[in-house]
Amino acid sequence: EMDRASILDPRPSATKRKAKRRGKSSxxxxxxxxxxxxxxxxxxxxxxxxxxxxxxxYCGDDFLKVKVPNNYRRIISGAQFSTAAEAFTAFxxxxxxxxxxxxxxxxxxxxxxxxxxxxxxFRRSQKKVQPAGINTAWKDMLAIQRGKFRSGTLxxxxxxxxxxxxxxxxxxxxxxxxxxxxxxDGEGANWLGIQLMLLxxxxxxxxxxxxxxxxxxxxxxxKPWSAFQASSWARTVQQATxxxxxxxxxxxxxxxx
Length: 257
Hints:
By secondary structure, the chain is mainly alpha-helical. The protein is 39% helix and 6% strand. The chain is built from nine helices and three strands; from the N terminus they run αββαααααβααα. The protein has helices spanning 4-7, 42-48, 84-100, 120-127, 137-148, 154-160, 191-204, 208-214, 227-250, and strands at residues 15-18, 32-38, 166-169. A three-stranded mixed sheet has the order 1-2-3. Helix 7 crosses helix 8 (208-214).
């Protein structure tokens, strides 16, 4: 059986980054914060020991218990999954089925059709009315992560061990995921990293990262308030990705391709 205590022990001091201050960012955390990159990969995990934060980390049915939204329950037979990725796939299929079966369904710009930080999604969201009861990808993943990092669990305790660090979901292949990860080249939105920093604030009763993100985006949907905030966040992700790649090279680990 897996020794969870030994693998759920992140090393947030692997590298440091400086957070630039602009506009509303005066409330962001300290200028210099630690950075933790995560993925279920031996090379990245060898440096940061934070693979448990990734979507494909095996949790087991006893650890990942997700509250399924009411409009998904008739489609999803069970509420227990082995990985966050497995849960999200089930939610995505339920979302698609609900949309296809709804006469009032319209394109919502979620899941595979969602791009970030393209301003077209903002214009489309103003023209289209999302059907009542249909969850967005952001809300679905947040519900899954809340189930994974429930207060009092080993996963929650391990998330808290990352301290006040910037969390980056670092893809090892460029072009695979521009929404949840950094896309491997810094061009992704790092939505999963944002959500985990928000959840960590909830668990620790802190609000520094939450205040910072509220100045950039709607924390209920993940959408930036404007193209300016989207560009500001994009630069932050690019900087963090560059520093992770440098740290991996310095430690003789695999870097992005």
